[in-house]
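Exercise 7. Predict the joint structure of the components listed below.
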Amino acid sequence: MTHHEYDVVIVGAGGAGMRAALESSQRARTAVLTKLYPTRSHTGAAQGGMAAALANVEDDSAEWHVFDTIKGGDYLVDQDAAEILCNEAIDAVLDLEKMGLPFNRTPDGKVDQRRFGGHTRNHGEAAVRRACYSADRTGHMILQTLYQQCIKQEVEFFNEYYVLDLILDGDPQQAGPGEEVAVAGVVALELSTGEVHTFRAKSVIFATGGAGKIFKTTSNAHTLTGDGMGIALTAGLPLEDMEFFQFHPTGLAGLGILLSEAARGEGGILRNSEGERFMERYAPTIKDLAPRDMVARAMANEVREGRGAGPHKDYVLLDLTHLEPAHIDEKLPDITEFARTYLGVEPYTEPVPVYPTAHYAMGGIPTTVKGEVLRNNTDVVKGLYAAGECACVSVHGANRLGTNSLLDINVFGRRAGIAAAEYAASVEAAPVLRDDAAARVEGIVTRLLGTVGGEGTARVADVRKALQETMDRNVQVFRDAASLEEARGVVAELKKRYESVAIHDRGRRFNTDLLEAIELGFLLEIAEVVVEGALAREESRGGHYREDFPTRDDERFLHHTMAYATPDGVRLDTKPVVITKYQPMERKY
Amino acid sequence: MTATVETPAVGEVASIQVKLRILRSNPEGTADHAPGEAYWQEFEIEAHATDRVLDALHKIKWEQDGSLAFRRSCAHGVCGSDAMRINARNRLACKTLLKDLNPAKPIIVEPIKGLPVEKDLIVDMEPFFASYREIMPFLMTTGNAPTRERLQSPEERQRFDDTTKCIMCAACTTSCPVFWTDGQYFGPQAIVGAHRFIFDSRDEGQWDRLEILNDKAGVWKCRTAFNCTEACPRGIEVTKAISEVKKALTTGEI
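Solution:
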């Protein structure tokens, strides 16, 4: 075992982690621990753009952006956080441009902007061009640019170090109100050697991304297994609003590979088997550019009412055939190549089969607007921060608008990086790491390695598949008490099976079999929280749609869900929504 | 996304028997092989023609041999984790469909060449990233930054568009015969990374970078074998980018 000491440790090297590192490493001795090489992070798969009211191509204002974000999030957004997000958006884009990000340009050389779902002019009048973009690989460009800046600043990376435990100096659930609980460090498994490392740090930032692999059909990478959220939960911290999961309307049918909303921003149209532009019925004003939750539900509804396309009538069609091939090549080159490569469909001449795909967790580790992690509704854990998809500020509420996540990672990654470094400078030393700090991780690794050739009968892949199938079947776009009860039962049974899971690789080095077994443990924890939150929320709001409670119920549910892991299962609590300017209204587009 | 073995994407696709011959090695040794010893192992699986090689590898790992080691993440060709040698060509396992290989013969899968093998299909990427860091892959400017964005015309932006697509999978560099034999050569990817900045109208560090590439480890090692261009899963014209750098060095003009 090797021991390390830093002022700030950042867990995760996607957009939020590296944006934080750029700030923190200028102010404090910083280490970035990442399960993957930084350039492999899933920020790189984001396509369409990053929202900011630059008003480079038409009239726009940050205030309209704030309103759209709140309405898009079905009024579960914390409005003070949304104001920060949208006001700081402009500098966030300009900062990236100055770092060298190659945005697409207007004829006069400014950052170009395009339309995206739910982003409107003057509180919903019409779609507005707010998304700053770089073809359909904006996330790739952001990830590359941030990595390049990290090289320039000589940020210290620990690549392929898989963080598995968070060490605090007290029990966050037992500690009373106002009592201090502080971060002491993290424990990580070095994948190339199998060695366990302890990192003592004054500040720790979690930027570990999402948990899309709880579902079968997802745009998420294999590696997005909710690790950071799972670690936080195990450490006694709450997760907020986990029942809100975004299903992106346009995943390649059967595969889930993401086709950017930019396809519709650039003029693409969704059609059912009858060729009808069905979004005109669901969102008469902005049609195909309605927010994702509405479009995904409309698509699923077309399919279940028998208007799906294809031999099994189980998808709808994304029609780009009326766009000029040159325009497609310039603005949407990657996603059209995905259609060709994986479905053998030529988007110039044929519509592309699409169906909703699990895409984004609106919920996560609750934080303040400075990125400080909350251990209950009001107390923060000293020195602990979270940013990006693993966090819940909450700027996305019940449904995130497209292009607001690339914005989120930059605005709140930056804020967390600054706050973490400033806190580190303000304290003498981190709490002492006990000698047995690594015991839990050592225990997990030893136990799983001990299953090789043993009695265990369950396979990691089988348990994971069963989990993903039940989540797709029961906790997707449409939910009700019966489907959620079924998912609850299956998840509980799978958690039992997980105890008898056996792996096959006995080695310490690059034991990816062991890695997948650990990841599965996190997936099961997260899935349970999603299901419990969804069962308790007897209303429909944003990405959470209950067929047995089809309307929003502000009377009972205009609050965040706070989920805690306890020995007796998940305990749910609530947290008030911060409302500054915009009282909840009916959500029509 | 998940493996598609059970549910073909669109319409019905018949399942096929596929053999994969994988070049393996285990740094800690196995019952039959010494630590680090390279050996071939053949697996047979049932798959669909529309499956990716990555799906086939997952099927082996998840159903037959959990110790098979390879990197992967996004599974649709944008993260650059799973470059490997498939039927003697560098490709991304997640972007290569079984139907595009000859299913009558075993599919040969090996780690990419020229980087130290760690375990099975996993290689040590550090020398590759070290070359990238050498060429100062970040925007260099002088003077005060403007308050708004730096202006750049669409034409200026287009000038280096191709090389911004790079996902650093190392398919190009590890397909280069010079890189295999010459431990000093930066390799094509580092030159692509430099090209992306040299031809960016906002950058002022182009001559520093060109000086690095003019070095004995630099562009003059390139013998225009075109392997890199053929290997690039992003369709970047790598050899063309290298010649543009060479031309800038000979003419002194960008």
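Discussion. The domain at 15-123 of chain B is CATH 3.10.20.30 (Ubiquitin-like (UB roll)).
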